[in-house]
Amino acid sequence: MTLDKYLNLDPLSFLLTGLILSSVIVIPMSALAEPESVEKSSIKEEIFVTATRVATPLSRVSSSVTVITAEEIARRQLRTLPDILKAVPGLQVVEAGGAGHQTSIFARGTNSNHTLVLVDGIEVADVSNPSRTFESANFLAGEIERVEIIRGSQSTLFGSEAIGSVINIITKRGDGKPRFFGSVEGGAFETLNSVAGVRGSLDRFNYNLAVEHFQTHGETVTQPAFRRGMPSDDDGYQNLTVSGRAGVQITDQVRASVAGRYIDSEVELDEFQAEDPDSRSESEQFFVRTELEATTFEGKLESTFGVAYTQNDRHIVNPDDVVNPGSFRIGESAGELLKFDVQNDLHLIDGHVFTVGAGHKSERFDRNERSLSGGFSSLTDTSARADSQSFFFQDGFEYFGRLFGTGGVRVTDHSKFGTHVTYQIAPVYLHSETGTRLKGSVSTGFRAPSLAELFGRDGFDGPFGPSTFVGNSNLKPEESFSWEIGIEQELWDGRVNLGATYFDISIDDLIASNAFFTSLINVNKAEIHGVESFVHLQVLENLSMRTDFTFTRSEDGDGLDLLRRPKKKLDIDVSYQPLPGANLGYSVHYIDPTKDFVGFSVGEIGGHTVVDMTGSYELNQNITFTGRINNLFNRQYLVTKAFRGQSLGAYFGITARM
Questions:
Q1: Which of 82, 285, 316, 533 could staple 331 via S-S, CB 3.0–4.6 A?
Q2: CA-CA distance, 45 to 57, in Å (whole number)?
Q3: Whether the predicted pLDDT of 491 surpasses 80
Q4: pLDDT digit string (tens) for 240-280?
């Protein structure tokens, strides 16, 4: 029986079967190792920041959380943010093309614009993007210290856009004597990936500066049916990223810091699913944040003041050519986001941390485009602006050393949609004697339509001929209600960890395209529910395995499946250290069939299983050799109706530290 056929089991049967098989494997194998030789789970010692906005041990956080560290990123040889997120339970990452192409992140079946992305506390959404999402394909992974993914509605703590999840990226900080570092990797499709930088600290000052460069000739991923008789055309991509972070301990109670990143990228496009030899998109992304932290009143008050700025500029060029004779498209867009925020954590009563915060956000976008298609010309020039203010309060509580959690409320005043109130209650019960965690949450969410959704205007060659998209200024905000309940269990001194969480999300006034793709409307609602489950096995001191399975059912108000949301998703990650300094990795990624939309038709995309392998050897503390094979069995599969997934590719590299 193939893996694809095996996964046609219903989710409950699959989950039970997986747990039984895991138990059959782990009990005899774990008996081979002495209990003392196996490291215990570090979940109780690990500090997790994002979910409650206050430094909190992960075991006391009720939200469903995945933390991916720099060590795991290096071990699995993940090179971009989409690579990191693909195996996260509850997330579906869809890359419409090869490297650098449009990438959508669907968290627990919600839309891609229901996920908020933060980088060192900076909201990095592109407000000129029609859906106001962050282009994650351009984020290289070389300077990431950790990624924290919190699933479920987090609007109470993080505001609009956080209906589905929050992805918080924390970059590396300098510490200790100055160290230079660098790496270079090359391989399939004329790919070259390199990183160089320096980090360290001096007395009260720390710093980190890095340059990353990625380029590839790419491959053609356009379906033959959409090539309009054109020969295959590889789609190249290049990316130059400069990032930095610095901090200074002004006094024992006051610290100042700054973090920023600049990304310059260019990608070759196949617009409207056709092979196009000269269509391209150039983009520049810049974001920076300055922050001041102060601890006063003998530690009873911790205050943070921050200012963040995000700018995204994009230039699209598609000249007259044999694919679209007599047609051209030249477009420019720019988006700016300025945010001020303050947060105060009050330690006034034992067992409680009261958090009070406020913020102001101002965003604007400009877009102009000239196009000619089929004798139909279009000239657009659009600009818009919106402001919002917010206030939030949270009580982080602890009772009897067993019951932990948070309860909070946020009030948001939007310049175009007035006042909205969201809330969240998220308790967790920790029974340390048995290693059991019971958790749950109830929360509401709110997302204001983006400026482009309200006021955007765009000429394009649509599926039914030349057309014009016009925003809908009468759109209403999307609102959500969600709840979840789960259990996690630690066994055999932490050598086995397993758990499952059931979630339910209801979204009212969901924003979607009209029937002819010429504008947007509020549809009735979306109903989403599902289960996330995992099993982590520390089989031996040098052998571990983690399995994540997600079942999601996402439907609109008419009971139709939302597009590009698989019902079942399975990820398996195996890590083995055969020798000191050596590591072998093996991962399996399965996606269920999904629905997609091209023209008037809704069709099904077949499911697929992709296997990757990695290997590394640490020659000494300064030199490490790496190698990886993506899509080991060269599985041919579709990620959308128009685009294939990437083919077999091998890559080899070296990392140096001094």
A1: 316
A2: 6
A3: yes
A4: 999 999 999 999 999 999 999 999 999 987 765 566 677 78
E strand intervals along 319-375? 328-346, 352-373
Per DSSP, the residues of 545-582 read EEEEEEEEEEEETTSPBPTT--SEEEEEEEEE-SSTTE
Condensed to tens digits (0 to 9), the pLDDT of residues 37-48 reads 333 333 445 667
DSSP 614-653: EEEEE-SSSEEEEEEEESTT----BSSSSBBPP--EEEEE
**How far lies 340's CA from each of 36, 161, 254, 296, 319, in Å?**
50, 17, 19, 21, 41
Cα–Cα distance between 530 and 126 in angstroms, integer? 30
- Token match 């029609």: residue? 130
Give the Cβ contact number of residue 355 at 10 Å: 20
The total number of residues shown for the chain amounts to: 658
Q: How far apart are CA 372 and CA 378, in angstroms?
A: 6
Among the listed residues 106, 113, 110, the one whose alpha carbon sits nearest the alpha carbon of residue 453: 113
Closest listed residue to residue 409, CA positions, set 160, 158, 156, 164 = 156
Find all residues with CB under 8 Å of 648, minimum gap 6, and list them: 188, 629, 630, 631, 632, 633, 634
Contact indicator for 595, 616 with CB cutoff of 8 Å: no
Q: Is 76:195 a contact under the CB 8 Å cutoff?
A: no
Domain ranges of the chain: 3-657
- Secondary structure letter of residue 113 according to DSSP: G
Angle at 538 between CA 533 and CA 539, to 5 degrees: 115
| Residue 301 CB coordination number (10 Å) | 14
Please give the Cα distance from 46 to 48 (Å, whole number): 6
122: its two tokens: 């900076």
Mean of the per-residue pLDDT values of the chain: 87
